Task: inverse folding
């Protein structure tokens, strides 16, 4: 961890092509890291429905679909389009060179 800046590298840019997502881990917490047309976003990996792994789901535009029962979440806002009162926490992401980094400590 880079304690000076408060960001930690979780992936390389080339590991998460546009339109895809993957699960990453920071300090024992799992996040769904998404590449929305070149812009990286990250949300809590745990689906609020029944704990499904969002990072293993499908990304369509800026919406990720849980692989277990299909609940969808906008990865920019964390909101479920069908019911915005249900949401997943979002995490701040930045790109430094080829490093994709998230802000720590996580506030999920
Ligand atoms: S656990 Fe995600 S939709 Fe059911």
Result:
């Amino acid at each position: 961890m880079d304690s000076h800046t408060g960001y930690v590298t979780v992936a390389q840019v080339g590991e998460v092509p546009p339109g895809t997502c993957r699960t990453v881990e920071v300090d024992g917490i799992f996040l769904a890291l998404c590449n929305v047309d070149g812009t990286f976003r990250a949300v809590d990996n745990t689906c609020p429905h029944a704990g499904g792994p969002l990072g293993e789901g499908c990304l369509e535009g800026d919406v990720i679909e849980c692989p277990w029962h299909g609940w969808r979440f906008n990865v920019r806002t964390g909101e479920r389009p069908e019911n915005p009162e249900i949401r997943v926490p979002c995490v701040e992401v930045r790109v430094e060179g080829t490093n994709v980094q998230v802000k720590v400590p996580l506030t999920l």
Observations:
- The CA atoms of residues 13 and 61 lie 18 Å apart.
- The pocket of FE2/S2 (inorganic) cluster is lined by residues 47, 49-52, 66, 68-71 (CB under 6 Å).
